[in-house]
Amino acid sequence: ELKDNTIIIVLGASGDLAKKKTYPALFNLFRQGFLPRDVKIVGYARTKMDEAEYHKRTTAYIKNPDEDADVASKIEEFKKLTTYVAGDYEDGAAFNKLTEHMEEIESHYQHKECNRLFYLALPPSVFTTVCKNLKEHCYSSKGGINRVIIEKPFGKDLESCRELLSSVKEYWTEDETFRIDHYLGKEMVKNLLVFRFANVSIGSLWDKNSISNVQITFKEPFGTEGRGGYFDEFGIIRDILQNHLLQVLSILTMERPVSFSAEDIRDEKVKVLRAIPPIEQSDTLLGQYVAANGKPGYLDDESVPRNSTCPTFAATTLWIHNPRWEGVPFILKAGKALNEAKVEVRIQFKDVTQGIFKDISRNELVIRLQPSEAIYLKLNAKTPGLYTRAVPTEMDLTYKRRFTDAKIPEAYEALILDALKGDHSNFVRHDELDVAWKIFTPILHWIEGQNGARPRPVNYPYGTRGPKELDAFVEKYGFRRNPGD
Ligand code: BG6
Q: What is the pTM of this model?
């Protein structure tokens, strides 16, 4: 449940993440009455600015396309909840100023208990210092809760992740720490548990006996424009596969948890991830986009080092060694500067036994995370008429059509609300990170030339489906393009 007397402190309040995601999510929660009564929001960052400038920045991404008067007045109310303190991240005295500011707010609360939720919208270079300073200077000792929300990158490999986690742990307990992978807040990802475990018909198809191969695909139609310098240090595997797509994979493949409690769910996720060995080089295809269709190539970005071999596209196949999944390839694919924006899971079933039907389409179950959430099942049916011929058709659950009035929450709204309630189910536990890095670290070290020359990714033109080698890559793992697809 939500606690009264809560302050939400956004550190990095003048940065991009806060502006684009955190404040709009806080506003939407506020507008719908989901924030605690008496809530106050305090921004903290290095930039010196007055309240007007701060409010301008924090509301810049709040959408009100129809200029709705109700929304406009809610924005004004929201502004009144939010204040700003400028200060350094290294300086203990500056954090004392933040505490004075919070105590002044808290002095107006009716009862003593004070709750503080710290949201770190900050670059990794200051994570640890800020965690330390918050604990030493801003931790409330008045009997309320203290929680800290942090977000990737959680290190760059197994070793650096372990270092980061253990330094944060010196100050904040696991129970107080909420590690965001924002894919876990997406509506369709949250639906996976219900879809899998509340449907007996789906549950019984969910294994190597029925399934031939699975693809989890992330496509973005823009390049690293403006973020090239940051991206080059990380690459597409750390940006998308190791976290977002692996999270989807674990929920898709885990055994049924004993309950919906955070620990039961995360125990099952860790268990299935532990059955995945490190990725092999031979199971990996790397790509980098080049200029095309009037758009610049990755290496044309001035913030990217010349000759960078950083992959902006990767396809890689994971194997799960347990009785349910032995032998089923799970292909994770992600790329920037492709031909469309889409994130989906595509489960391709095996062929029907040959005999009466030949050359018919395989069944496929597609779970589209975005855009336009949908689940559809491709089935064969008899064409209507006086003869018997099978044609591919679809059973289609498109959210927009089925749930016409529903407003699908943004991932960050769902996650901030969970953190306020203290529910860890959709946050990443330390051992999930550990095992995720075990799977990806060797391939990343190979890509970064730690054991020899760096492999050169293959080129693909901006705005296309990806490297031309991709079709052969997925076919190698048994994926068969159905006629007409
Ligand atoms: C972030 C990545 O984690 O996820 C970005 O760092 C990427 O590179 C983003 O664009 C995608 O998120 P979404 O919610 O738009 O799919």
A: 0.96
Angle at Cα 273 formed by Cα 269 and Cα 277, nearest 5°? 175
In the chain, % of residues over pLDDT 90: 85
Higher pLDDT: 147 or 2? It is 147
Q: Look-up: residue for tokens 């290294």?
A: 90
Q: Which two tokens stand for residue 73?
A: 């007045």
Which residue's entry shows tokens 């529903």?
Answer: 406
**ipTM of the complex in this document:** 0.95
What is the reported pLDDT for 474?
98
| Bridge partners for 370 per DSSP | 343
Q: Of ligand 1's atoms, which has the minimum distance to the CA of residue 220?
A: 10
Q: Is 424 in the active site?
A: no
Q: Is the CB of residue 232 below 6 angstroms from any atom belonging to ligand 1?
A: no
DSSP E strands in 18-101: the ranges are 40-45, 82-86
The Å distance, Cα 355 to ligand 1 centre, comes to 46
* Ordered DSSP codes for 243-279: IIIHHHHHHHHSPPPSSSSHHHHHHHHHHHHHT-PPP
Burial 362-386 (b: 16+ CB within 10 A, else e): bbbbbbbbbeebbbebbbbeeeeee
Alpha carbon distance 319, 321 (integer Å): 6
Number of Cβ atoms within 10 Å of the Cβ of 454? 14
- Residue whose CA is at the smallest distance from ligand 1 atom 15: 220
CA of 220 relative to ligand 1 center, distance in Å: 9
Catalytic position from the list 244, 321, 424, 430: 244
Mutate to test the pocket of ligand 1, among 244, 343, 415 (most ligand atoms within 8 A of CB): 244
Comparing CA positions, the residue from 345, 316, 391 lying closest to residue 195 is 345
Q: At residue 484, does pLDDT exceed 70? A: no
How far does the centroid of ligand 1 lie from the alpha carbon of residue 295, in Å?
20
239 lines ligand 1 (CB under 6 A): yes
Nearest to 476 by CA among 273, 206, 282: 282
